[in-house]
Amino acid sequence: MSRKLFELGFDRNQPQTNRIALKVDSQVPTWMSGSFIRNGPGMFYVGKQRLNHWFDGVGMLHKFEFDQGKVNYESQLLDCSAARAATNEDRLTYSEFATDPCWGLFGRMRSMFQHGPTDSAKVNLAKIGEQYFALGETTMQIEFDIDTLESIGQYNFNQPKFGTSSTAHPHIVGQEAYNMITKYGPVNHYQIRKMDKDATKCASVKTLFPSYMHSFGMSERYYVIAESPFTVQSLNLIAANRPFIKNFKWNKKRGTRIWVIDQKSNQVVFKQEIQPFFFFHFVNTFDTESGVTFDMVTYPDAEVIQSYYLENLGNPDTSIPGGVLKRFDCNFSAGEVNISQLSNVLMELPHIDYDRYNAKSDYRYIYTLSLTNNNSSFYDQIAKIDINTNKSIFWNQEGCFPGEPVFVPSPQSKAEDDGILVTLVLDTTNESSFLLLLDASSMQEITKIIAPDPIMIGFHGQYFKN
Amino acid sequence: MKIVFIFLFVMFAMPDSTEATDTGTVQIQVDNLQNKKGQLGVLIFKAKSGYPDQHEEAYRSIFTPINDQKPIITIKDLPYGDYTITIMHDENNNGVFDKTIFSVPKEGYGVSNNPEPRTFGPPQFEEGMIKILNELTTIKIKLRYHD
Prior knowledge:
With 466 residues, chain A is mainly beta.
């Protein structure tokens, strides 16, 4: 990617910003009353150590608060043990996704057992009941105060910090949330658990070599677990002197395993090993007459993780692979999985109107980051994909790199795309960032709201209504 | 007036070419299956890219269990057009078309139209191309095994 994009988007630490009113025009909808919060890395330099990977940075929350046409902005490092250690001790003391503290083997062992993996929950956000959480891939999720962004406490899955990971994408059903954790050990398990006080176990399947998991599927009747061949020998997580993700290898000799678990009986009702592919995100999962269908953004292998190393991102000649949207129809009685491609758009960080259309078979629109071409060095446009017609509409601007688009329905919204897309865009031409509001129906710009500083490239965002 | 009436009648009587009716079903009878172990993987290619076994390039793919010595695989809603279809007999159920280090298939495979394999490699993409132009198309694909 260009040097400017790398320097502004990744290769630095982001200053925190106290609450500030942003300059807006009259186009900001007055009905928007709530907060758009974006999670992501805010620190790639800890002491003298530069972290290795996009998924490593110490987490930071950026909040844009909408109130009757006015917009306030503030940002804050996610207050957690890892961030406190990084800022107070000026060194990395927790193991990140692809970076370990600069200690020798015994230091690393000490680090793992004294400190464990990072609790910097920098990936996603969720409102569960009346609580707001920053979510990561370890078992420690951080509850925060939506007014101040200050941490309230830590939720974990009543599991040891070491030897367990979770997805960053729980499913919200009413006031409850369900997530999948992976327990590593002599026998490895994927477990679906409620994110309640006791982390109630709902279902469990065993696996010999667990895979890296970022999300799982949940329809009204079933949980869906997809295990790509990007797997680990769990002993290596302890014994090998490598950061977490470097223990995972692409196994060319096997495919991707699908488990479908009935939510009532908690029994596996369908299991099959199909063609190998890698993925981060389930887009949607819904029941059908013959079984269950799920849509995913897929890759032929796990090279995309390699492409996110800062060393690769900083290379002006490299491009990143785009994911492909595929549909998997599981027919239980026939024992068959039918796979089809839903769009030609190269994409990542897909978003739907989750509240209204998750687990619904009639959902039609996916809003996603996308690549303008195969040589794009990073996600440089937003796409709206109509999966019924396979037609797409795009927003892009020279030198601009948007973040995940988040759909906010209009108050009287009836059509699925009647609402606004909110996304945070890094503008390398003007060395700034702006919050972009798009008409979700037409993808036409409504307004841009300039942030006080350029904001580093992050992951998921959510809009929380007041 | 009469001409206008006929024109309008013809207009409304003609099928709308934009309706999603131009799809057909393909029934594949799989011949020469050596055993009923594992599953069958079917890859449907619209273009040469990825043929014969790169699933990520396939237009559609299906993984189905083997319930019969002469299984019939049904593929529905395939838009009218030209396709080359490959089948692998995934005997060990690993979702992968296993080959030796010299790229010789370890598992049975077949291509639509049943073209002869070349000395070093699979049949040409074009040799396996079939046309889907009817509501129902029935084909046979014979599996080959390199023992």
